[in-house]
Amino acid sequence: MPSERILQKKIEAVNQLAEKIKEAKTVVIADYKGVTVEEDTEMRTAMRKSGVEYRVVKNNLIKLALEKNDITELEEYLKGPTAIAMSTEDVIAPAKILTEYSKKHKKIQLKAGIVEGKVFSAEELNAIAELPSKEELIAKVVGGMKSPLYGLVNVLNGNIRGLVVALNAIAEQKKEVSA
């Protein structure tokens, strides 16, 4: 039986993980078997840059943390070595980064995940990973809204330019007639 101190640390770890899962918009679990330290470090750096927390945690601790949040759908995926990626900011980032590194290194395999409260399989997460991020979508919408406005400004400027040219031509004609 584990000592009181070790047991207390595990309870603390479960509570912290449960809180992070509760706050996260996206939680993705993956199999990381065979990943080298160099590959793991590279992936963790990419995750940090995107605001994603990535941890390797024992399946029993993940299971307890999920149960604290009344999530039982991921229990069947908690077999073998498991890593968990969570994001409170970008909904797509954990799946996108894990999918990217899965394609690059062929060792990381998505198992399943929860995106905004809905459970997704590995295949569905791969499809979600292909979507642009929220910021990219907003940029596209704003760009799409700005484009017609710029067109309108150019048309209005064109009419004003045409009027100025016409008035200059009339002024030139009057100068020639009076001269």
From TrEMBL:
Pfam family, one: Ribosomal_L10
Molecular function GO terms recorded: large ribosomal subunit rRNA binding; structural constituent of ribosome
Cytoplasm among keywords: no
Known role: Forms part of the ribosomal stalk, playing a central role in the interaction of the ribosome with GTP-bound translation factors.
GO annotation terms (biological process): translation
Protein name: Large ribosomal subunit protein uL10
Keyword annotations from UniProtKB, A to Z: Ribonucleoprotein, Ribosomal protein, RNA-binding, rRNA-binding
Record's subunit section: Part of the ribosomal stalk of the 50S ribosomal subunit. The N-terminus interacts with L11 and the large rRNA to form the base of the stalk. The C-terminus forms an elongated spine to which L12 dimers bind in a sequential fashion forming a multimeric L10(L12)X complex.
Gene Ontology cellular component terms for the protein in this record: large ribosomal subunit
Membership in a protein family: Belongs to the universal ribosomal protein uL10 family.
